[in-house]
Batch of 3 targets.
Target 1
Amino acid sequence: MTSTLFTNISELVTNSPEIGDESKMGRLYDAALVVEDGVVAWVGPASAAPDCDEISDCHAHAVVPGFVDSHTHLVFAGSRADEFAARMAGERYDGGGIARTVADTRAASDEELHDTSQQRWWQLRTSGVTTVEVKSGYDLTATGEARLLRVASEFTTETTFLGAHSVPREFAHDRDAYVAYVAGEMLSAVLPYAHWADVFCDRGAFSVDEARHILTAAREAGLDIRLHGNQLADSGGVALAAEMGAASVDHCTHVADHDLEALAASGTVATLLPTAELFTRSPFPDARRFLDAGVTVALATDCNPGTSYVTNAPLVLQLAVTMMNFTVDEALWAFTAGGAAALRRSDIGGLAVGQRAHLSVVNGSRSADLAYRASTRPLFAVFRETTGIVL
Ligand code: NIG
Ligand code: FE
C-alpha cells in the first residue's frame, strides 16, 4: 500500500470538530495529511508528520474537502439559451421548458448523452466537485429514464429517478395515468440504476398528494427519497419532505417558519441552490433563517439546462456568501459536509481519518479565498481517490 504525504498546507479544513481549533470546521494551520489507499490515514501539524512513500507539496496553499454536489441534472441534450434570453427580457420561469429538453434528449444517441455528461462532470471536477448526484427526468418514458440513469451510473453511484419532473405531452390529458405510470412501470424499469427517487413538487408541477404517492411507491421498492420543493411557490413540498423523513428537500426558495421547524425536527437537509435563483431572477433565500432554526443546510449547483447551466462550483459558494447571508465557513461546510449529509454519506464531505481523500488545493493560502477571489483559476489541484487533477 502506498502512502502519500500532503504537506506544506497553510490552512487545512477537515470539518471534524475533534481536529485543530475544535470549531465545526476542524481547522489546522501549517498542517499535513497522509493518504493511504485513497483514505485519510493521518492529520496533524506538518512538523509532526510521519514518513511516507511519496510527498505532495501543497506550496503553502489551503486544502479543503472536495465539494459534494448533491443536486444536478447532468444528463440531457440540447440548449435553452433562447429561453434564458427571453426570461431576461421579462418572461417568467414556470418549468414549461422541460418539454423542450425532453424532446432533445429523447432524440439524442447514447454516445451523445455519454459524451456531453462526461464533459459536464469533468468541468465540475476541475471546479472542485469530487462527488456528484445526478437525476433523470428529461425523457419521461420507462426505457428512456432507465437509459439516462444508466449513463449517470457510469460516473456516480448517487443516481436519482426523477420521472415526476413534468407531465409529458402524451399524457397531458390524463395526468393520473402518468402518475400511475411513474409509480409503476417506470419505477420498475429504473430500479437497477437508481439509488434515490425525487419529485418536482411545486406549483405547476406535481401536487403534494401525487408526490406522496410516488415517493411511497419508490420507498417500498427500496429507493431512498429526496424532493424538489417550494422553488416556485409555498407548495407544501418542504412540509412533505419533513413528514416523510426525506434525506433532503431542495430549492426551498419560499419557506414559512413552520417549514423550518419541521425540517429541524425531522433532520431533513435543506439544499439551497443559489445559481438557480440567480439565473431565474428569483429571491435568494436567507440562510440565517435556516441556520438559526437549527436546520442542516447544503449547497449544490443544480446543473441543468433550464434554470442553472452551471459547472462552476465556486460561483455557488460566492453567491451563498454575498447574497444569502452565509458566513464563508458556513457556506464551505454546507457545500462539503452539508452535501454529504444530504446524500446520507459519512465517508465524504470532510478530511478526518477514515474519510475518503477527496480534496482540493486552493489557489491561495486561505480557504476563504474560494469565496473572496472570483478568479479563473480558483484551485491549484483536485484529488479524488488516488488520482489527482493538477490545474
Ligand atoms: O431544479 N425545478 C425543476 N427542475 C430543474 C429545472 C428543470 C428545467 O427547467 O429544465 C431545477 O431548477
Ligand atoms: Fe433541480
Target 2
Amino acid sequence: MEIDEAREVRTTCPYCGVGCGVLAKVAADGQVSVRGDPDHPANFGRLCSKGSALAETIDLDGRLLYPEIHDRRAGWDEALDLVASTFSQTIAEHGPDAVAFYVSGQLLTEDYYVANKLMKGFVGSANIDTNSRLCMASSVAGHRRAFGSDTVPGTYEDLELADLIVLVGSNLAWCHPVLYQRIVAAREKRPEMKIVLVDPRRTMTADIADMHLAIAPDGDVALFTGLLAYLGQHNALDRAYITAHTTGFGQALFAASALDLASVAAATGLTEDELGRFYSLFAATSKTVTVYSQGVNQSSSGTDKVNAIINCHLATGRVGRPGAGPFSVTGQPNAMGGREVGGMANMLAAHMEIENPEHRKRVQRFWTAPAIAERPGLKAVEMFQAVADGRIKALWIMATNPVDSMPDADAVEAAIKACPFVVVSDVLARTDTVRHAHIRLPAAAWGEKDGTVTNSERRISRQRAFLDLPGEARPDWQIVAEVGKRMGFGEAFSHATPSEVFAEHAALSGFENDGARDFDIGAYAGVDAEGYEELAPFQWPAPGPVQAGRQPEEGGQAGHRPSSIRFFADGNFYTPDRKARFITIRPTVETRTSPDYPLILNTGRIRDHWHTMTRTGKSPRLSQHIAEPFVEIHPADAQRFGIGDADIVRVSSPRGDVLVRALVTARQRQGSLFAPMHWTDQFSAKGRLDALTAPLIDPVSGQPALKHVAARIEKFAAK
Ligand code: SF4
C-alpha cells in the first residue's frame, strides 16, 4: 500500500450506535492516528475514549490470518469448498432449517445483505439471527406494533431541541458518550432544558439529571402506564391527534386507569411525590424526547416497555416533531443496518415482512431466488437451543463471540461443542468461540474493509479501508458470496465490489415500493464505484440520487442530505389504516428472586470497554479506567452479606458463578447488584458474567432479559 501522509480517510467508528465519523491516517512509518470527523453530522469532530483509542487496537497480535480446517492451515478454496459442500449436504439430508447463521451488529450492511440473501432466498430458511437480538429487538417489535414499521421517528437534533429529555434505562454518559456530550452542550446553551433519568442505578448520566427516578427493576411498564392514566386524568391529552391519527386509545387508557398512583408507586419503588413531579413535568412539556436503551430492551417485558413509552407520546401527539418523540438508541454500530437488510430471523430485506406473502414474492422476484423463507426462523436464544438439541446441524458464526456473550453461556458453549459442523469467520484466532470451530475463516477488520453502517438516527455512513488486508483475510460479504457460488448460486453472488452489493440493496429498497414501506434508499440504486467511494453520510429515506462532487451544504461534505429527516410528522403511519396503534398493556409483577438467590443482578457496560473486550482489551489506556471486573452492591446489602469494599466475592445464579471485586456504593439500588459484561476468562480468572444469565426472553421480541437475573453474593474464601 502506498502511504500518503497527507491523506486522511473518512470512515466511521466501529463501536456504538452513535455512529461517529472518524478521520484515519497512516503515517510514513505505518503508525495510524485517528481524530473525529468535524464534518460528520453525528459527532461534529467529537470522539469518546473508545473512539479516540481506535489506533491502539488494530495491531495484528492474535489475528486469524489464514483459513484453518480442524486446527491446520488450509487454502481458501479447500476451506470454502468444505463449508459449501457440508451446508449443501446438511440441507439435502435434513432440510433448510437444519442450518443457521448467527451474525453480528459489527458486520457492515453489505456483509449482512449477502448473508441474509443466501439464507432466506437460496437456502430457503430464515435461520439467520444476530447478536443485535440482544441489543434492540424489543424496540423493533415495539415500533412495528405501534407504527406498523420499524422506524425511529426522530433525529439526534431532537435531543438538542427538546425542553425535556427522559432517559430510560440508558447510561448515555458511558454507553453513547458523544450523544451525551451533545446533550450537555445543548443544555449549556439552554439551561432551561430539563433531564429526567429513569434507572435503578445512579449512573454517571445522573450527573446531568434534574431528577433521578431510581426505579425498581422492570418497573418501567407501570411507570409509563401510570403516566398515560395521569395524562388522561389531568386533561393533558392531544384529543385531536388521538382521534385523527391513532387507534386503540380508549382501551389502552381504560386498562391504564385501573392503576392508581399508590399501585404505581408500589410497582416502581418510587414515592407518589416523585411520580407526581415527573408526571406533571411530562404533561406540561410539549417538546419531550424519551430516549431508551438496553434497560428497556433487555427485559422479558421489553416490547411492552417500549409500547408503554410510545403510548404516552401518541397520547400527547409528540411523535416526529422537532424536539419531540420516542427515541431508541442502539448499542451496536450497525444494528440498524442489519435491520434494513433483514438480518434478523423474523424480517425480510428492505424492511419487508416475512409473514407478508406479497413481500415474500417481491423479494424472491427481485433476487430471482429459487426459494424464499416462508416463516420466521429461530431467534438467537432459540437458535442455540436448537443447536443444543440437534435440530441445527451446521452453524456459521460471523464476527461475534456467543460463548461469552449469550445468556446461559455455558450451555451455549456446550451446544457449539456438540454441533456436528461449526464455521466461524472472525478477525481473531482464538476467542472462546473461535476455539470450537471446525473451520476458521479469517475476516477483514475495521480499517481493512469497505462498506456502510447505519446509526441510531437512520444515518448511513461509509466505513472505508485505509490498511491493507493482512495475511489472507477477506471481507465477510466476499466470504459468504464465495460459499453461495460454491453452493450452486453463482449468478446471484457474483458481486465484484461492496459498491455492487450496496447498489443491489438500494435497488431492492425501492423495488415496487408502493409507499407502504418506510425504508427507501432506491435513489442510490445506480451508485457506481466512484459515487460509493464519495458517499457522504445521509439519512433514509433518500430524497434523491447522490451526485459525486455535489456542492456541500453549509458545513457539510459533498453530497450531504438535509440533516433532520423525521417520520410521521404528517400523522401518517405504516399500518393498513395509516393510523398509529395504542397497545393495551397491563403491568405484570414477576418475582424471580428466591431465598437461595435473593438479589437481582443487572448486567451492562462500562465506559471504556466494548462487548467481550476482544478489541478494547488491547489498549492499556482503556483498561486504566477500570482494570478488573467488579460488582456494585448497596451498603445495606454489603452489611447483610458480610462484604467489605474491595473484597473478592462470588456472585452466583442457578447456572454459574463469577469471582469479582465488590464495590460497595449507594449508587446501587438496595436488593440489586450490577456487574459489567465485558470480562471473560481470557482477562480474568473466572469472569464470564453470562455464565450466570438466564435464557429468559421477551415473548414478542425474543430479546433476553439480561438485566434481571436472580443471584446471590458471598465473600470469597480461597481454600
Ligand atoms: Fe465510537 Fe460511540 Fe464513542 Fe462515537 S460515541 S466515538 S461511535 S464509541
Target 3
Amino acid sequence: MSLTKVYSFETNDKVSQALGEFIAQASSESIARNGRFTIAFSGGSLPATACKYLRNNQNIDFSKWYVFFADERCVKLDSHDSNFRLVREELLDYLVQQNRSIPADQVMVINDDLIHEPAKVADDYLVKMQSVFAEANKIRFPEFDLILLGIGPDGHTCSLFPKHPLLEVKNDWVASIDDSPKEPPQRITLTLPVVNHARRVAFVVTGAGKKSTVKAILDEKNTHMPASLVAPIKGDSYWFLDDAAAKGLTEN
Ligand code: 6PG
C-alpha cells in the first residue's frame, strides 16, 4: 500500500534543505540497490528549490545520476522557457565548477532541432527513455527512482492539464501537447501511468497562492485536478510544502 507523506516547513529555505536531504537519501538508496539514480525534474520554481542545497552536498555520487524532465517546453535548450535551462543553471553548472559533473549523455534533453513538431520530440524522447530503462521490452512502464513535481493553481502537474485528453493516456510513456492552456502551447510530458509507476513522487509547493489548490488535492481529493490523479502503484508520494501553502490543511 503506497503512502502519502506531507511535510511543511516555516520557510522556503527550510523546504530546500529538507528536500535536498530527501533527494540525497533517495539517490544513495537507489545507487546502493541498482547502481544508478533516475530522477525527473519539473520546471517553474522547483529546480531552484530542489537544488539550492543539493548541489553542495558532497555525499552524492552525481556520476550515477540519469536526469530526465517530467515535462519540457518545445523550445530551444538555451531559451528562457526551457526547463532544462533551469536545471542547468541551478544544478549542472555548479557541478561542472566542482568537477563532479553528471556525464552529458546521462542528462536526457529534448532534441531541439525538432521543436516545431512536438510529436517527433516525444518520439525522440521515448527512444532516450528506452535507452536508459533498457529492460523496456520486458517492463510495462519505466520505474523512476524519483519524479519531482510542481502544481499549478489549476492543479496541473507535469504538462497534464484539467480536462485534457492526455489524462486518458493508458499506454504511452511520453506524450506531446499542442494546446497547453499555459504558455508555451507546445510541450512534451511524462504520462500519468509513468508518474504512477515511480518509486517515489515528490510534490514541491510553496507560497500562499497555492494553499487552496493544495487543500483541494490533499483534503478534498478533487479529481478535476490532475495532481489528485497521482497515486503511485508501488511507490510513495511526498509533499514538501511551506507553511503558507499548507495553511488550512486539516491533516497537517
Ligand atoms: C511548466 C512548469 C509548470 C510548473 C507549475 C508550478 O512547464 O509550465 O513546469 O508546470 O511546474 O506551474 O510552478 P511553480 O512551482 O513555479 O508555481
